[in-house]
Amino acid sequence: MAIEFKPSPSLPPPVNSVGALAWLRQNLLSSPLNVFLTLFSLYVLYLLVPPIIEWGVINATFSGDTKAACTGGGACWAFIGVYFEQFMYGLYPSEETWRINLSLILLVLLVGAFAIKTINKLYLSLAIILVYPVVAYFLFAGGVFGLTVVETSLWGGLFLTTLLGVVGIVASFPLGVLLALGRRSDMPVAKSVCVVFIETIRAVPLITILFMASVMIPLFLPDGMNFNKLMRVLIGITLFSAAYMAEVIRGGLQAIPKGQYEAADAMGLTYWQSMILVILPQALKLVIPGIVNTFIGLFKDTTLVYIVGMFDLLGRIQAANHDANWLGTTVEGYAFAGFVYWIICFGMSRYSMAIERKLETGHKRN
Amino acid sequence: MSNKTKPNNSLLNDAGTRALIFQLLLLSVVVFVGYFLFTNLQNNLDNRGISTGFAFFNEPAGFPILIHLIEYTDSGTYGRAFAVALINTFVISLLGIALATVIGVVIGLARLSNNWLVARLATVYVETLRNLPLLLQMFFWYFAVLAALPAPANSYEFADFLLNKRGIYSPNPIFQDGFGVVVVGFILSIVAAVALIVWAKKRQTKTGLWFPAYWSSLGLIVAITFLALVISGFPIEFDLPEKSRFNISGGMVLPPEFVAVLIALSTYTGAFIAEIVRAGILSVNWGQTEAARSLGLRDSLTQRLIVLPQALRVIIPPLTSQYLNLAKNSSLGAAIAYPELVSVVMGTTLNQTGQAIETIGLCMLVYGSLSLTISMFMNWYNKKMSLIER
């Protein structure tokens, strides 16, 4: 008669190695130092979070037309409501703001059209890069098809911030690629021109470039030839970020093994063919994080135009803070600006991570 | 019919010639643009009656500068104002770099902490500050935080420090006769400490015996300096800030402009440095730590002797560019009237004299050389720290 082997049922794991309790022990209370750090962090949170919630939500006033409506002792969000249009469009005439909205919708539609499989992507890209800017410019500035002219000095708020950011990003990218290629070129003249340009721009702060754009450029142009200030500032911002972009892209170009260059040559490709078809697609993919970081930096740097007298989002908030009817709403203004900038910049950085994952084509170590 | 294709020997198809032609074209474009701008500049300057040159440096400036570390009165010259602004820029950059490094290292280590809460808080700090424009942060500190402090009469008091709308007031040390003894004692103690460390290292390489050189040299410095203080009878007095009804007298004051720029610069750059430190430490292979442990090194020694030296190699190059960014970003102080280079030279001086070329050129030159100096120093340090390959 065979004796049947009956294993006794396994014991449950010790209470303090599973569940919430174990997690607490491991992650918060593993050593005396950790206990102290946990308590300290909790204290910091206690100091910061309840007052902020109390100020921003519980005691806050969300609607109203004057400062007198804010009686709760907390944040006065009514201030943001009253000034919302200025924060978004600057001093752009309110009956004309549909033009800004329309061009934004147009852009979203065009970019969204990439999702449709039957559309030729090349034509679509060309439409976005070549046709759209012209349409948008005439929508913003007016003067054709019976649209009233809106002076660029009235442009402002988030609209101006976005305009500076988008134009800077779109224009500085190709320029940065050219500069990076020039710096890696065998031709001594091309190389030295690029090196001098890149290093000069990178050595000085953006403010000096903006001052140069707003004060010095008129001195360098013949009489009668003059751009408006927005255009000059745009040129300054573009040149500035192109220099940084060039260095990022150069990093990518250097990371491509020499064999790729040689293979492209061996195929009989010309310089531009080998760059566009072989080298750049690989190099740019490598440096997406760097490129996006430059874009984020550029977007944050657009706030500096306030110093040369243009009223972007931050500038409009500064101006609104000086309104005698709304004294003491400084923090609300900055909180709103911070919220907008943070969403955009954080969104860009997360989006770049998503692209990186999407373009990851293997060669993954471990 | 010959099978031989005729080689296309046209000069235009020769790579060398094409490169030459292209470069000649580029060069002539650069020269032409340069010439065009230069002649326009001369015409415009003539038309507006602006004389070039730095002669205006000797003229009285006639504007006050709030913060000056060297003597400056309203009747000082533009040259003097430039010197004051230059010093202000250097001071804020150096202090900012020191403070940002401390913040960056602390937050970077905190993000790697195995304490969940600490790591999360550090992440929130980094992601918040990195994604907000520096100018906004400066405005926030200056207009929202420091401007909301109480008037001098109701200052916050911590020990002998006062905090109010007008800035931070601290005791001002006044050195009496005989303070030289203390200085000499301090210098001697440092010499002794260095000698001790050198001796301990030599002995360790020779005999393998270990000596707690760093702790004992620290003790040596404190002890000798304190002894010198006692011998000379504490030749130092403090001028304490006193509250009167509307004002504060005495003491040393850090104006709110200075405090706001310093806080904004160092916390902002600190967030970037934290990421660099974290990435550097993560880049050191875990096997290195395991190997160190299997050699029987304590955790602190593992960090100091194995992980940190290897991490520093990865950290230094990006750290350099953060330092450069900080120095350049100090120019944003102009927006809240911290009297640094841009606000004094490119702001007030340019407005009063109209010498656009000189003032903007001078600023670019100063920032250019500042960048060059920092990057040269960091390159030297990087070379010293980098892997010596055999």
UniProtKB/TrEMBL annotation, chain A:
It is a multi-pass membrane protein. One of its GO terms (cellular component) is ATP-binding cassette (ABC) transporter complex. Gene3D superfamilies: MetI-like. GO terms for biological process: amino acid transport. Its main location: membrane. GO terms for molecular function: transmembrane transporter activity. Residues 158-352 form the ABC transmembrane type-1 domain. It is found in: Cell inner membrane; Cell membrane. It comes from the Bacteria. The chain crosses the membrane at residues 35-57, 69-92, 98-116, 123-148, 154-181, 193-221, 233-253, 274-296, 333-351. InterPro entries: AA_ABC_transptr_permease_3TM (IPR010065), ArtM/GltK/GlnP/TcyL/YhdX-like (IPR043429), MetI-like (IPR000515), MetI-like_sf (IPR035906). The keyword ATP-binding does not apply. Belongs to the binding-protein-dependent transport system permease family. HisMQ subfamily. PANTHER family: INNER MEMBRANE AMINO-ACID ABC TRANSPORTER PERMEASE PROTEIN YHDY (PTHR30614:SF41), MEMBRANE COMPONENT OF AMINO ACID ABC TRANSPORTER (PTHR30614). This is Amino acid ABC transporter permease.
TrEMBL record, chain B:
Pfam families: BPD_transp_1. It comes from the Bacteria. It is found in: Cell inner membrane; Cell membrane. Belongs to the binding-protein-dependent transport system permease family. HisMQ subfamily. GO terms for cellular component: ATP-binding cassette (ABC) transporter complex. GO terms for molecular function: transmembrane transporter activity. The keyword Membrane applies. The chain crosses the membrane at residues 20-38, 50-70, 82-110, 131-153, 179-200, 212-238, 258-284, 359-381. It is a multi-pass membrane protein. Gene3D superfamilies: MetI-like. NCBIfam families: HEQRo_perm_3TM. Residues 86-378 form the ABC transmembrane type-1 domain. GO terms for biological process: amino acid transport. This is ABC transporter permease subunit. Keywords: Amino-acid transport, Cell membrane, Membrane, Transmembrane, Transmembrane helix, Transport.
